[in-house]
Every structure is written in C-alpha cells, then in structure tokens.
C-alpha cells in the first residue's frame, strides 16, 4: 500500500531516551523543559526571531485572529485546507473569498481590492503547498487599507522567501506540525510574529490568559503543547534536512518521469528556497484525473485531492462563485511523497498515470522491480528510518 504520505518516525531508541528524561522529571506539560528546548532549537533552525509552540495549526490560526482583535470580514483563499476558513468562522468573523491565481494557485492579489469593504479587518492567505503567496503585493494592499495580514504557512516548514524564513512575514504567520506535515510533532503547531507585544499577548492567550499564578491579563484558551509532542519534534528536527533533501530528489524524479503527461504544476515563486512539501499535479481534465486516481487505487496507491472541494462551497457558508479555484480543485491530485518512497514506487505510479493518459485505461497489475532505493540517484543521501522502508 502506498499512501499519499507517511509520517517520519525516528528510531525508537531516540524517542525513548527523551521518554526516560520525562519519567525522571515527572513534568509532563505546562511549558516544560522539552517544550522550551524545542522552541529554542526551532528558532535557531528556522532563524526566526520569535515563535510559540501551540497545540495544533488550527489553534495557531485561532490565536492569531484573536490576538489581532479581528472583527467583521476577513479576506481569504478558497483553495486551502478547511481549517483556514473554519478558524475565521470559529472566531466569529466572516470569510470573504477571493479567487486564486491560475498559475500559482495562491490567492490572486489583483482581485483583493475589489473585495474590501468598510467591514474588512484582515487578509488571511495560505502559502499553498509551501509556495509563498505574492507576499509583497498582499502587504502593500494591507498597508494601503490598514488591514492586518495573517499567513497560513502550514505547508512551509523550511521554505525561505528572499533568503528569510517565510514564517517571518505578515503580522502573524502560523504553521502546523501535524503528523502529515513534513516536520511534525504528532500534533502541534506554532505562531510567529516580529512584534514583541503580540508575542506576549499570544503567549498569555495560549495559557488561559495567565499573567502570573493568580492573575489573568486577558481572555485565553488552552493552546499549549506538551513534553511528549516536543520530544517527537526534537527527534525529528535532527532528520529534517535529510527529509527535505529526499523530497527534492523525489520531486525531480516525478517531474522527469511525467514529462510527457498533459498536466501543469504550480508556478513557484521566483524568490524561493522551496521545501517540496507536496507533489500536486493539475490534470488537463477532471475525467483524466479521476481515471488516474482510480487506476492508482486499483494498485493500492492512494493519492489525495488537496484541495477539493473549493472552500467557497462549504455548506455552512454563503456560496460564492470562484471559477479559477473550482476548476483547479476539480482537476488537481497530490501524488504520494514521503521519505521512504523508492524509485520503483515512482516508476510504478508514473507508468500507471501515463498509461491512463495514452490508452485511456486503468493499468493492469504492474510487476514491481525489486525495490531500488531512490538514493541510487544520490549516493550521499542516507535517510534514517525505523524499518518502514519498502
Ligand atoms: C494542516 C493544515 C492546517 C491545520 O493544521 P492542524 O495542525 O491539523 O490543526 C491549517 N491550514 C492548512 C493549509 C493545513 O494544511
């Protein structure tokens, strides 16, 4: 079985040594030493000024909206995970969708201004698949109209924009460390800001609003994370460079193997160090995409339609017509991408897709070569793994 992604797991002894230290200290949660160590190491690794480790990426978005005191309408993208628009609604605001760019699949800045009303308080944009939005254009519009900017950077671990972590942009950036993301803490997320006051506010908010043992500074929630999740993050951080390298190799392998496919890939931002977080393929037609998805499923290869449906069609929101997003969402498929995939896995996946395109038929059962490791492309690359290799 080949799923769309597999979480990286360190060798179990690495994790166990952190577990022993937790048992010795008997400190399980509430800003413990491993949470502090993870925050410090992430700050150094990402080269960011401030960050706060929180319980998940959705909570990160909710805390960001609350900390900025947003009200009324928030301009956002219909092409994202459902948590992006849900967090807006959950915080009592109204999402106003603006269609996406045909090339990048990120929110189209040229369409933002016409959506601004006197009730607009912010722009919440997702850097889809780890590819940054047109950050400068969005910030310029926000400055002109006194709007706040939040970037949902859930896909962006390791992405740099103009030689700086993409987490350093906007009033607040948020990310997710969920098990399906390329760097994970099982469940987890983070908020990033350049502003010390906002940082202080969010630090208090994630911990019930405490400002000292018997004092509350504001409305808070339980948004903190624990020692066990921090331990997983500390283990995985040691391997994240290898994970990033491996995904880059796999992506190039896919692009080469699929060079005859009638499909498009998102246009990457020009000022980018990319993290190869996903491998999305935009097929020429929804029919071709669905036939490929079905042919792959016949071989127990499970892709995901990230992101379908368009968030503008959520049943609890007023419908909005987003033609570009609806067209992209109906034709896009993310192919499997994770650190233990081999070249023979990719050969199988790409052969099935090309056969459906060329002959219009689901492939018959393909004979797998004995698993040839993708490292054959790049002998210097060795990935630590716990026996889940094919
Ligand atoms: C994963 C994801 C989230 C939510 O993160 P969780 O940690 O699962 O709550 C939010 N936005 C986007 C774009 C995501 O992909």
In the sheet with the most strands, the strands line up as 1-9-8-5-4-2-3
Gross morphology: globular
CATH architecture identity of the largest domain: 3-Layer(aba) Sandwich
Beta-strand level of the residues, as a percent range? 5-15%
What would you call the structural class? alpha/beta
Output mean pLDDT. 93
Number of strands: 13
Profile the largest sheet.
Answer: 7 strands, mixed
What does this structure look like?
Helices cover 35% and strands 13% of the residues. It has 390 residues and is an alpha/beta fold. The chain has two domains: 12-237, Type I PLP-dependent aspartate aminotransferase-like (Major domain) (Aspartate Aminotransferase, domain 2); 240-376, Aspartate Aminotransferase, domain 1 (Alpha-Beta Complex), CATH 3.90.1150.10. The strands form three sheets. Strands 1-9-8-5-4-2-3 form a seven-stranded mixed sheet, sandwiched between helices. The structure holds pyridoxal-5'-phosphate. Pyridoxal-5'-phosphate (PLP) is lined by residues 56-58, 80-81, 83-84, 126, 152, 154-155, 176, 178, 189.
């Amino acid at each position: 079985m080949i799923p769309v992604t597999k979480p990286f797991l360190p060798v179990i002894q690495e994790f166990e040594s952190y577990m022993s230290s937790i048992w010795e200290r008997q400190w399980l949660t509430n800003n413990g030493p491993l949470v502090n160590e993870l925050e410090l190491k992430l700050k150094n690794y990402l080269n960011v000024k401030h960050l706060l480790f929180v319980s998940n990426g959705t909570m990160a978005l909710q805390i960001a909206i609350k900390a900025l005191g947003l009200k009324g309408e928030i301009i956002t993208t219909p092409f994202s995970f459902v948590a992006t628009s849900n967090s807006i609604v959950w915080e009592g605001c109204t999402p106003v969708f603006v269609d996406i760019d045909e090339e990048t699949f990120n929110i189209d800045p040229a369409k933002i201004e016409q959506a601004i009303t006197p009730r607009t308080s912010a722009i919440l944009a997702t850097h889809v698949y780890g590819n940054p939005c047109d950050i400068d254009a969005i910030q310029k519009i926000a400055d002109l109209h006194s709007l706040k900017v939040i970037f949902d950077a859930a896909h962006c671990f390791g992405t740099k924009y103009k030689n700086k972590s993409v987490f350093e942009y906007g009033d607040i950036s948020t990310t997710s460390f969920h098990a399906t993301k390329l760097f994970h803490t099982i469940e987890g997320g983070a908020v990033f800001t350049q502003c010390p006051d906002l940082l202080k506010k969010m630090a208090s908010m994630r911990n019930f609003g405490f400002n000292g043992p018997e004092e509350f500074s504001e409305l808070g929630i339980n948004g903190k994370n624990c020692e066990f999740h921090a331990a997983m993050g500390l283990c995985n951080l040691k391997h994240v460079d290898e994970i990033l390298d491996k995904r880059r190799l796999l992506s190039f392998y896919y692009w080469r193997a699929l060079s005859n496919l009638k499909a498009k890939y998102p246009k990457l931002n020009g000022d980018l160090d990319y993290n190869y977080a996903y491998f999305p393929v935009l097929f020429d037609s929804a029919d071709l995409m669905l036939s490929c998805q079905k042919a792959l499923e016949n071989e127990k290869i499970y892709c995901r339609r990230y992101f379908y449906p368009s968030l503008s069609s959520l049943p609890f929101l007023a419908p909005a017509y987003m033609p570009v997003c609806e067209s992209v969402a109906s034709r896009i498929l993310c192919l499997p991408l994770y650190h233990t995939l081999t070249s023979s896995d990719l050969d199988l996946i790409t052969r099935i897709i090309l056969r459906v395109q060329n002959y219009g038929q689901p492939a018959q059962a393909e004979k797998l070569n004995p698993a040839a490791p993708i490292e054959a492309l790049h002998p210097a690359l060795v990935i630590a793994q716990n026996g889940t290799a094919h």
